[in-house]
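Q: Hi! Curious about what ABC transporter ATP-binding protein looks like structurally. Here's the sequence.
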Amino acid sequence: MEANEHEHVIEVTGLRRVYGGGFEAVRGIDFSVRRGEIFALLGTNGAGKTSTVELLEGLAAPAGGQVRVLGHDPYTERAAVRPRTGVMLQEGGFPSELTVAETARMWAGCVSGARPEGEVLALVGLEAKAGVRVKQLSGGQRRRLDLALALLGDPEVLFLDEPTTGLDAEGRHDTWDLVSALRDRGTTVLLTTHYLEEAENLSDRLAIMHEGRIAVTGTPAEVTASEPSRITFELPDGYFVGDLPPLAALGVSDHTVDGRTVRLRTRELQRAATRLLMWARETGVELRRLDVRSASLEEAFLGIAKDASAATATKKEYAA
Ligand SMILES: Nc1ncnc2c1ncn2[C@@H]1O[C@H](COP(=O)(O)OP(=O)(O)OP(=O)(O)O)[C@@H](O)[C@H]1O
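A: Let's find out. The predicted structure is below.
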């Protein structure tokens, strides 16, 4: 297949996974990832992210639906898919007595056309640790070794299962820079993460899973736009919410009052903020600690998880 940026490198339709005891961990999900895109799979604990990624990696057969990676079934056509993909599992599980360089060399023996191990260790900032035994690495350094091994085959598609778990803030930012650089070179990346900031900063598109289903898919901006924005301020003594212009006319969907602090939620942030500030100027009121902000991905995530628990999720999908 010819590579082009519109090509769907990963295509998932109606995918299901059922474990031995009959538990359905993945309940019919659909999404696709284009070449050169970073796609993040988010979700609450046990949502089914790892179960999904394992199906994409060809480690298990689906109970229903279909997966295509680079146009092939990763389970039945493993030989066609595996050499072109890199996989970073949650637990690498290497022999701990080997050094970092020996581990990379051993792994390279299993990869056709592997890059020199020094090159991948340098990419993840582990070159100074080449002679150190794996058991002496910190948790974060082990994660970086996992990533180095996934990069040995210079893969077209990279699966990263919680790539920055255990990394400190600097290590996390270094990994983001590396993953972005790989994307800029055309690598397609699918990652799972618990760090919403990671998905917000790094991913081109994301999906939020909950109890085996996808509740929402879209760009980070599209997903956050699905949640109301917030305006928070303190009213001076002698003023009350009833003194504000009618909240419905400001486009405010709901509000709370805690002492002097008022919190408004609105889907029409500009209109609400403008009218509120005009009112403040006209009445000569100072709105102390004024804070006006769009929803964060974290708020969207929490809102979706809550909604999805309360009822069968109405799936929101934005154009791919
Ligand atoms: N081998 C298994 N047998 C039975 N159930 C399993 C098995 N592996 C996972 N599950 C169940 O499937 C569900 C999804 O698990 P999965 O590990 O895919 O979730 P996840 O979204 O990756 O979670 P986390 O964020 O906690 O890593 C969970 O309820 C889990 O208990």
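A: A fun detail: The radius of gyration is 24 Å.
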